[in-house]
Specification:
Number of strands: 20
Low-confidence stretches: none
CATH superfamily of the largest domain: Mur-like, catalytic domain
CATH class of the largest domain: Alpha Beta
Structural class: alpha/beta
Largest sheet: 9 strands, mixed
Strand order of the largest sheet: 7-8-6-9-10-11-12-13-14
Shape: globular
Strand content: 15-25%
Helix content: 25-40%
Radius of gyration: 23 Å
C-alpha cells in the first residue's frame, strides 16, 4: 500500500469513525476501514430488515457497530471522524453542530481526492456531467491507461486506493452535495455548465454556484480547467483559473480549447497561436443531440495531450451513451420510446427535446425542486405534440406552459394522469407510426421513486411489457 495511504490508515487506527448512510458509496469503504483496525460505527435510518439481514451480519462480523432505525443517533458527538453520505446536506444543523464542536467531518470522495496517487480528472455541472465523465474515461481507457471511474458514476474509489498506481488515471463525477464541503485539487477540472438545480436543498443559486466553483478553487499552476464559454456562470469562473484554461463553445471559435462550427457542423480544436484544426464532423458522434456535441467538446478539452485524435474519433463512433440519457428503449409499431429519466431539471429536459427532429409525446412531472419551469414552456410549445403530466409538479407545469404566449392548444395537447403506468398507457393510445415518446420529466423523482434510475427502470419495464 502506498506510503501516504498507509499513513492515513495508521493515523485512524483505534479511532472512532462513524459512517452516516450505508449506501453504495459507503459499503465497501466501511469494510476497508474495519479491516484496517478502525473502530467503525455505521448509521442508517433504515431498519435491519430494509438493509438486509445478510449485509448487517456481514458488517458485524467485521466488528462494525450498527445504529439503525430507532437507534439512529440524534447526536454524532461520540465520533472522532464522521463520513457523511453525499445525499446528506452538509449545512444541516446536526452536522454543523458536530463540526463546530471539534468533530472531523469528511466524505469518501474528499478523502479519495486527497490520497489519489495518479492524475485525477473531476467533472461537475448541472447538465451533461455523467456523459462527459463517461466519455473522458472511455477515451483514456482506449488510449491504454488503466482508468478508474467513480464518484456519482461507477463505484466508490476509496476502497480501490490500495491498487491504484501513479501511471493510472482516475475520473470522477462530483455533485454539488459533494463539492460543498470538499477541498479537491484535481489535475483536470471540468465544469460543463451551471443552471438552476437542487434549489430545494441549497436554498438559492448563490450557494449552488459556489459549490461548482469549488472544484477549481484549490487547483495549482500545473493544473488544467475546462469551462463552458457559452454559460454565463462558468464563463465567470475564468478569472479564478490558476493553471491552463480551456474553453469549449457551441457558438463559435475559442482561442484555446474546442468548438462547434455552425458553418460546416464540424468539431474543431484550438490552441494558443495556432490555426484551429477540424477533428471530425458532429454527425460522426453516435449519440444524438447538440447537447451531446457540447459534452464531446468538454471531454476533448479534458484529455488534451493525453489522448490521440484517432482515439477520440473512435470513441465518437463507438460510444453509445449512458443509461437513462435519451436511451432508446424499443421501437413498437413504428413508435420509438426513449428513456431520459436523467432530465431532472427544465434545462436538461430542453436539451433532450432539442435532440429530436420532430414534435414528440413528452412524459413529464415529478418532485418539486423549486426550479422555475418558465424556460421550458416555449420549447414545449414548439416541440411537443402531447404533454402527459403526473406527479407533484403536474399542475405547476401545465399552468406555466398554458401561460406561454406561443402555446396553442391545437398543436400541444396537455393531459394529466395519476402515475407513470397511466402515462405510458395514455401515450401508447395516442401514438401513431413515426411518433417519438420520451420520458423527459424536467423534475426529480422523489415524490414516487428513490432516484431517477429507479424511475427510468420502471419506465423501461412498462414499455417493454407493452
Amino acid at each position: 500500500m502506498d506510503g501516504k495511504v498507509g499513513a492515513f490508515f495508521e493515523e485512524l487506527r483505534g479511532k472512532r469513525v462513524w459512517f452516516v448512510g450505508i449506501g453504495v458509496s459507503h459499503r465497501q469503504t466501511i469494510e476497508l476501514f474495519a479491516r484496517r483496525g478502525v473502530l467503525v460505527t455505521a448509521c442508517d435510518k433504515r431498519e435491519r430488515s430494509a438493509l438486509g439481514h445478510e449485509l448487517c451480519a456481514h458488517l458485524e462480523s467485521l466488528g462494525v457497530r450498527l445504529l439503525l432505525g430507532q437507534d439512529y443517533p440524534a447526536d454524532f458527538a461520540p465520533a472522532q471522524v464522521l463520513f457523511r453520505t453525499p445525499g446528506m446536506y452538509y449545512n444541516q444543523p446536526a452536522l454543523q453542530h458536530y463540526r463546530t464542536h471539534g468533530g472531523v467531518l469528511t466524505s469518501e470522495m474528499e478523502v479519495f481526492c486527497g490520497l489519489c496517487p495518479c492524475p485525477l480528472t473531476a467533472v461537475t455541472g448541472s447538465d451533461g456531467k455523467t456523459t462527459t465523465t463517461a466519455l473522458i474515461a472511455e477515451m483514456l481507457a482506449a488510449q491504454g491507461f488503466r482508468t478508474h471511474l467513480g464518484g456519482n458514476i461507477g463505484k466508490a474509489l476509496l476502497p480501490a486506493l490500495p491498487e491504484l498506481q501513479p501511471a493510472d488515471r482516475a475520473v470522477v463525477e462530483l455533485s454539488s452535495f459533494q463539492l460543498i464541503s470538499m477541498r479537491c485539487a484535481p489535475k483536470v477540472a471540468v465544469v460543463t455548465n451551471v443552471t438552476p438545480n437542487h434549489l430545494d436543498v441549497h436554498g438559492g443559486m448563490e450557494e449552488y454556484t459556489e459549490t461548482k466553483r469549488n472544484l477549481l478553487a484549490h487547483q495549482d499552476a500545473f493544473s488544467a480547467t475546462v469551462l463552458n464559454a457559452d454559460n454565463p456562470a462558468t464563463a465567470s469562473f475564468v478569472p479564478q483559473v490558476r493553471g491552463q484554461c480551456l474553453l469549449f463553445s457551441m457558438e463559435g471559435p475559442v482561442e484555446n480549447g474546442a468548438f462547434y462550427s455552425t458553418r460546416d457542423s464540424g468539431v474543431y480544436t484550438a490552441a494558443h497561436g495556432q490555426k484551429p484544426k477540424k477533428l471530425m464532423d458532429a454527425a460522426d458522434i453516435r449519440i444524438p443531440g447538440l447537447h451531446n456535441v457540447a459534452n464531446y467538446l468538454a471531454a476533448i478539452c479534458a484529455v488534451r495531450g493525453a489522448v490521440d485524435d484517432d482515439v477520440i474519433r473512435g470513441a465518437a463512433a463507438s460510444f453509445s451513451g449512458v443509461e437513462h440519457r435519451i436511451e432508446l428503449v424499443r421501437e413498437l409499431d413504428g413508435v420509438c420510446w426513449y428513456n431520459d429519466s436523467i432530465a431532472t431539471s427544465p434545462t436538461r429536459a430542453i436539451a433532450g427535446l432539442n435532440a429530436f427532429d420532430r414534435r414528440i409525446i413528452m412524459l413529464a412531472g415529478g418532485y418539486d425542486k423549486k426550479i422555475p419551469f418558465e424556460p421550458l414552456a416555449p420549447v414545449v410549445s414548439e416541440r411537443v405534440k402531447v404533454l402527459i403530466l403526473c406527479g407533484a409538479t403536474a399542475g405547476k407545469i401545465q399552468a406555466v406552459v398554458q401561460a406561454d404566449p406561443a402555446f396553442d392548444h391545437k398543436k400541444t395537447e396537455i393531459i394529466q394522469v395519476e402515475d407513470l403506468p397511466e402515462a405510458v398507457r395514455t401515450a401508447r393510445g395516442l401514438s401513431r407510426p413515426g411518433d417519438i415518446i420520451s420520458l423527459s420529466p424536467a423534475c426529480a423523482s422523489f415524490d414516487k421513486y428513490p432516484n431517477f434510475e429507479a424511475r427510468g427502470r420502471h419506465f423501461k419495464e412498462l414499455v417493454n411489457a407493452l
